[in-house]
Amino acid sequence: MSELTISLAEAHGLAIFTTASGRGIVDERHPYAFGNVGLYTLPQIKKLLFEADMIIAIGTQLEETALMGWKEALSNTFFVHIDCHYESLERSVHADYRLLGDAQLSLQNLWRISCENMDCGTNSKNEWIKRMQEVKQEALSVWAEIEDIEAPVRSMLKGIEHEFGEHVVLVQDNGLHDMWGYSYPVYTVAPPSRTVVPGEQTALGLPMGISLGAKIADRKAHVIALLGDGSFEMGYSAVGSAAEHQLGITFIVINNGGFSWPRFQQSMSEMEIGCCFQIELNYAALAQSVGGYYKKLTTPNEYQEALKEARLYTEQNKIALLELVVNWDQDLPITVMMQYGDKEQ
Ligand SMILES: Cc1ncc(C[n+]2csc(CCOP(=O)(O)OP(=O)(O)O)c2C)c(N)n1
Ligand SMILES: [Mg+2]
């Protein structure tokens, strides 16, 4: 699937986007790869979706977040939707051309029909490739390096890339702050690394248990659960289970003092109900009680050392728990601000 996607993209000069759950299928460092589509697409990259004269969606039901911020572009383009479930083809948008079929087989057929007997080199293809290069370069120049002390979540994501290297499974939730991790190139995914994300109806706490499953499935991977304090506190019994079963997992909890996603939305209407935690859980005691590593992080210059320690602990099958302290309204994902924020700002 992965190779076919890339071969087809290279033959025709196509930009590749993934849905959040399809992420990991292509190496995002590839010049034609642009990360997740929809709510998570950074503004520099989103332009491409509006400039495309044809869009093919494969193996996706195009749920709400996958279409956020660019759905209107579909009506000005030739849109092909391929999925093996008929209902998916009718669920969210009506494509110009709908194909019922298995993703892999459909890609093989596309390849055969469009490449076998055809010369794929055209001027318009070269123009589009040039445009992709410009867009990629612009996105990288804005987002690839984070030196801003006011950007703790983004700095942590870069820290993970640097410390854990080639084989990482990032298990994510969908809180306000951890959403930065969905945006390429704030965080870049290249196989065998991948991310595991909840579906559209995110069930807070789920990533805690899922990280155990990820580690059992892929013992060689560095499994990192990156989630908010609200999510963590709904599933923190998984820390004990991970230690019990000697699963070396790094839990990175973004502690912003409560449920900041609804708090952010409430702030638009100048209200605040039930989003702040009154009692602080003692994360240190929890980690230390199971022989794990713990560090509370308040400034980015502490991150790299803590991540290194976390790696050393988890390589010895112990857990690590990093508590990343962030103000609830600091380092908010630009994608969320664009979709939901005060547009006047
Ligand atoms: C079981 C459940 N209840 C409520 C929600 C709605 N919800 C989505 S994000 C969120 C807040 C998450 O808090 P936290 O994990 O601390 O992340 P933050 O938004 O603070 O960054 C809530 C309540 C949900 N997804 N699942
Ligand atoms: Mg929180």
Précis, in short:
The protein has 345 residues and is of the alpha/beta class. It contains 14 helices and 11 strands.
Characterization of this structure:
By secondary structure, this protein is of the alpha/beta class. The protein has 14 helices and eleven strands. The protein has a six-stranded parallel sheet with strand order 7-6-8-9-11-10, with helices on both faces. A three-stranded parallel sheet has the order 3-4-5. Strand 10 (293-297), helix 13 (303-315) and strand 11 form a beta-alpha-beta unit. The protein is globular, with a radius of gyration of 21 Å. It starts with a helix and ends in a 5-residue tail after the last helix. The mean pLDDT is 94.
Our estimate of the beta-strand percent is 15-25%
Classify the secondary structure makeup into a structural class. alpha/beta
Order of helices and strands: HEEHEHEHEHHHEEHEHHEHHEHEH
Small ligands present: thiamine diphosphate, magnesium ion
Please, how many helices? 14
Count of extended strands: 11
Largest sheet descriptor: 6 strands, parallel
**Could you tell me the radius of gyration in angstroms?**
21 Å
Strand order within the widest sheet? 7-6-8-9-11-10
Helix amount: 40-55%
Average pLDDT confidence is 94
Uncertain residue segments: none
| General form | globular
